[in-house]
Amino acid sequence: MDFKYVPTTCPYCGTGCGFNLVVVDKKVVGVQPWQRNPVNEGKLCPKGNYAHEFVNSPDRLTKPLIKKDGKFVEASWDEAYKLIAENFKKYQGEQSACLASARVSNEENYLMQKFARAVLKTPNIDHCARLCHASTVVGLAGAFGSGAMTQSIADIAQSKCLLVIGTNTFEQHPLIGRRIMQAKANGAKVIYADPRLTPTGRIADLFLQFYSGTDVALLNCFMQLILKNGWENKEFIKNRTKDFEKVKEVVMKDTYSPENVSKITGVPAKDIITAAEWFGKSGQSAVLYSMGITQHTTGVDNVKSIANLQMLTGNLGRPGTGICALRGQNNVQGACDMGALANVYSGYQSVIVPEMKKKMEDAWGCQIAEGKVGLTVTKLINTLADEPGKVKCLYIMGENPMLSDPDLHHVEKGLKNVEFMVVQDIFLTETAQFANVVLPAACFAEKDGTQTSTERRVQRWRKAQDPPGEAKADWQIFCELAKVMGFEKQFPYKSAEDVFNEIAKVTPSYGGMSYARLEKPEALCWPCPTPDHPGTPILHKEKFTHPDGLGIFTPIEWKPPAEVPDKEYPLIMTTGRCIWQWHTGTMTRRSENLEREEPTGWVEINTEDAKELGVSDKEMVKAVTRRGEIKIGARVTKNIKKGVVFMPFHYAECAANVLTNNALDPVAAIPEFKACAVRIEKIKEA
Ligand code: SF4
After folding, report:
1. Under CATH, to which class is 65-131+333-525 assigned?
2. What pLDDT is recorded for position 669?
3. Which CATH class is domain 571-682?
4. Ligand 1 contacts CB of residue 143 (under 6 A)
């Protein structure tokens, strides 16, 4: 029997836990803890423990598929490449668009944005970070000059006060949840703010159960109380920031008094006062947040308010402080770093700066797409649906907008308008059904590469088994397709490591990294600009990344969500995830041990609301918004705020995103998944 352990990185959440894949006779059969990995120290959550289960699923894609007369038929790679190249060549520049993936490696995201810009000459390249943390990238970059989590995960344990807001960390990032518990064991106070009492909320010292979409009001009130009591860090404000007075003017308004904010948020004023005191006085306070903060039409405002709070209290650049923007998918940080975004090349080098465009053209040896901001995912879907004929060709790698994007009927309309569509994935997803050509890809266990976790840690994937059938690594597919299209010189790579070496050359924050340096279990956190640089676990220690080194305060007024409850749709709907499933369920729903635990969706309804509606626990109900309706089982519980309902978005059979609103944040173009108006109806018996 041939037996080995292959150390690699978890393909689910952005925590970036390391584990060993157990390989028997060249097949992945299990997962074993990797004790020396500093992120998770040998511990794993259920998804990590069962991360091998989908790898050898019988419905993995094994051959290219071409749609003929409405049905997919198997084809050779040569046939598929020839058909794709013929069609791609028909479309000029902006008539094409590409969607990269937060699930695949850095190398593959880098190559997809290069393929879009250098081969298809289109500026339209984006990916699902737009749906989860675009507001973090914009908001934190505006405040500090860098749009990423400021601290390391291990550092959370050193905090004396944690504000955990809009993140169900114990279910979505369980091994970061472990650090919250370590902080608590060290004596930290934990404040939890969310419309639901989740498992994370249960361990909190103070639970602020607020209405979805009232974050800015709550944070402004904290700042008012901190200022009134003199708990601000005057030295930090003076030496390290600018525009403080503008924020002071806004937060000191009567609107943000505890009494008024209590009315807006539904949180008792005394609890807001206690929270502000704990946070303002600890001297070492950190904020953890996730999509409860970002997925709003005010997502950037929410993030900037958190930045204001941390600058006001001087809680940045020191152990136990900072802003922990918890990125969702395994490599959403890396896909952003690699320039799989409509506005930047790798390393956040702006596409509208002519020197940056020239730098890429020189490095790649060809002319590239016009230096303008392309269509974001959200604007792309709107363009496809509402301006048919403008974008005609779509190339999607490892994304599933037919389940992940808001207002799914609208997404479907858009995808039906595409003339030619290629999907590259490991399974025939809901989105792949719309494709003309489907290319079978290798999964994380079948290729070398790197991914970058939420704490900016760049970690290795290592190949443990061959891909099934004729499936190939995404990076290999790009090289072969580029060759067929006449761009062999631009895509000469023989390995993922070759691609990484090019990334290091053109991306300053990755400049000092190499596969050899990433061999160690602790790998490296960016920025790591030179080969002798040790990496940077904590950002903004002495100065911020803006040219003058100062952090920028931004005055923010609270605005309600784009759609608020009314007579017809009287409840607020919010969405999220559960511990057993992951995003659109493409991988977890093919994992027996995970799928068994939560095999379908549900709607959480407050006990009093359910009583008024005459709905019982487990009863099937209809959920209706202005965009559509679904049938779904009710979970009646006291754990959700009265007036709010919650649905997980993993399940195609009761897809929450049929209902969600695609209203966008005006700056980051992130949709408002976390608040729309909904009606729950009893289903009348026939
Ligand atoms: Fe994987 Fe995240 Fe669980 Fe760690 S916490 S094992 S990275 S899903």
Report:
1. alpha beta
2. 83
3. mainly beta
4. no
Whole-angstrom Cα distance, residue 162 to residue 278?
Answer: 9
pLDDT, tens digit, 9 for 90 and up, residues 571-601:
999 998 889 999 888 899 999 999 999 999 9
Judge if the beta carbon of residue 48 lies within 6 A of ligand 1.
yes
Question: Could you tell me if the CB of 573 is within 6 A of ligand 1?
Answer: no
686 pLDDT higher than 70: no
Probe target for ligand 1 pocket from 44, 153, 331, with the most ligand atoms within 8 Å of CB? 44
Atom of ligand 1 at shortest distance to CA of 9?
7
DSSP 51: T
Cα(306)–Cα(271) distance, integer angstroms:
19
Each residue of 292-332: pLDDT tens digit?
A: 888 888 899 999 999 999 999 999 999 999 999 999 899 99
Residue type for 161, please? C
pLDDT tens-place string over residues 220-256 = 999 999 999 999 999 999 999 999 999 999 999 999 9
The answer to whether the CB of 177 is under 6 A from ligand 1 is no
Distance 44 CA to ligand 1 centre (A): 6
Q: Given this model, what pLDDT does residue 531 score?
A: 97
User: How many angstroms separate the CA atoms of 673 and 573, rounded?
Assistant: 9
Largest CA distance in the chain: 73
Ligand 1 center–CA 16 separation, angstroms: 6
The answer on pLDDT for 685 being more than 80 is no
The CB of 17 under 6 Å from ligand 1? The reply is yes
- Lookup: tokens for 649: 């978005």
CA dihedral 651, 656, 661, 664 (to 10 degrees): -40
Instruction: Compute the average pLDDT of residues 69-76.
Output: 96
Tell me the CATH class for 150-325. alpha beta
* CA neighbor of 156 nearest in space, from 135, 184, 194: 184
Domain extent listing, the chain? 3-49, 65-131+333-525, 150-325, 571-682
Give the tens place of pLDDT for each residue, 14-58: 999 999 999 999 999 999 988 989 999 999 999 999 999 999 999
Q: Which of 3.30.70.1140, 3.40.50.2300, 2.20.25.90, 3.40.462.10 is the CATH number of 3-49?
A: 2.20.25.90
**CA–CA distance, 456 with 337 (Å, rounded to integer):** 9
